Amino acid sequence: MKHVLLISSILIVLGGCSLSADEPPLAEQRSDLFDADSDGVINARDLCDNTPQEAVIDNDGCPTYLLLESNNSLRIQFANDSAIVEPAYREALDKMAGFLKLYPETFLELQGHTSSPGSDDYNQNLSIQRAKAVQAHLIEKGVPIDRLTLIGLGEGDLMLADNTETTQFVNRRVVGRVKGFKGDIKEAWTIFTQREQ
């Protein structure tokens, strides 16, 4: 009985060893699948070398637009009772002007805001003056006036409601929002889509 049990154990162990699978064959790579600029399009199909990292690309690896989130909105803060754009904001305004020139189908809505101290009429007028100051800088940089919309909101849309010096500063602003930007709409394609020659 012991011999039968021993022989069966040996046969089970040896039988298990013979069931191990052979290594699967490695697929032969027939094409160069390297993507030098890391845009998601292999070099063999890529028509545009060195695509910027923040670009959205088409089927050929060429940029269709840049994802410039910072250029899709603008925020300029103002001193108390002032409609003067501080020099620190000139660079942001210059970038916005460049973005608007690059995408002529877009326009910019400028919303002027104030903090709560002051009369409603005074704050309404001041919010419009702030939006006009930002508009003037963009026009000076070559943005057509018909692509800039002004809205004066006065103190009607406070970001922060408490009445401290810090929250008043946060509320004294012009916010610019890009409208008409169609960059997010892309035609769907797959890796199997054929490029027209």
Automatic annotation (TrEMBL):
Q: Which SUPFAM superfamilies match?
A: OmpA-like (SSF103088), TSP type-3 repeat (SSF103647)
Q: Where in the cell is it found?
A: Cell outer membrane
Transmembrane helix: is it a keyword of this entry? no
Signal peptide: which range, if any?
1-21
Protein name from the UniProt record: Outer membrane protein
Species of provenance: Grimontia hollisae CIP 101886
The UniProt keywords, alphabetically, are: Cell outer membrane, Membrane, Signal
Classification via PROSITE patterns: EF_HAND_1, OMPA_2, PROKAR_LIPOPROTEIN
Q: Where is the OmpA-like domain?
A: 65-182
Q: What's the short name of a Pfam family annotated to this entry? A: OmpA
Any Gene Ontology CC annotation: cell outer membrane
Main location per the UniProt record: membrane
The answer to whether the entry has keyword Membrane is: yes
Instruction: Give GO MF terms, alphabetically.
Output: calcium ion binding
Give the top-rank taxon of the lineage listed in the UniProt record for this protein.
Bacteria
Under InterPro entries, the record lists:
Bact_OuterMem_StrucFunc, EF_Hand_1_Ca_BS, OMP_bac, OmpA-like, OmpA-like_sf, TSP_type-3_rpt
